[in-house]
Inverse folding.
């Protein structure tokens, strides 16, 4: 498996994978147009045999804040370190950009905690983060947990 920057030709694979897990209630859905518009945010796992089997996006929110979104790994490729590698790629990119804090909203907090994230109260996140929440089918009854990486001690 290889972590790579997503290409425009990966958008439909990303869309299918993310919405597969969204259909199971494990993450939020993404519109194909949203993926195309933000394709530069995405990393993918490429498998020589199966093609794109994982994805994650690092979305910049502010001067010192970014979000990991749409982290998904196909079932056949799970438990092989791909999810952690995608998170590492996002964290490395945030460091290269000079962004000190990275957060995520998830239904799987234990995974992100294993990657060094700590739980925070969603109310601690800036209001700018919530701009997209209005489009969410669960708004205003969000059931995701907020976690942060790079919090100042």
């Amino acid at each position: 498996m290889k972590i790579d920057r997503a290409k425009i030709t990966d958008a439909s694979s990303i869309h299918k994978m993310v919405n597969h897990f969204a259909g199971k209630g494990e993450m939020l859905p993404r519109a194909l147009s949203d993926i195309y518009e933000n394709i530069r945010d995405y990393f993918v796992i490429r498998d020589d045999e199966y093609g794109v089997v994982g994805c994650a996006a690092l979305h910049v929110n502010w001067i010192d804040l970014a979000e990991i979104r749409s982290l998904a790994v196909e079932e056949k490729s799970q438990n092989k370190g791909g999810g952690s590698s995608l998170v590492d790629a996002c964290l490395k990119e945030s460091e290269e950009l000079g962004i000190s804090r990275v957060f995520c909203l998830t239904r799987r907090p234990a995974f992100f905690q294993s990657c060094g994230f700590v739980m925070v109260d969603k109310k601690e996140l800036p209001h700018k983060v919530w701009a997209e929440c209005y489009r969410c089918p669960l708004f205003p009854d969000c059931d995701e947990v907020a976690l942060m990486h790079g919090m100042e001690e």
Summary: The mean pLDDT is 89. Residues 2-149 form a domain with the Aminopeptidase fold (CATH 3.40.630.30). The radius of gyration is 15 Å.
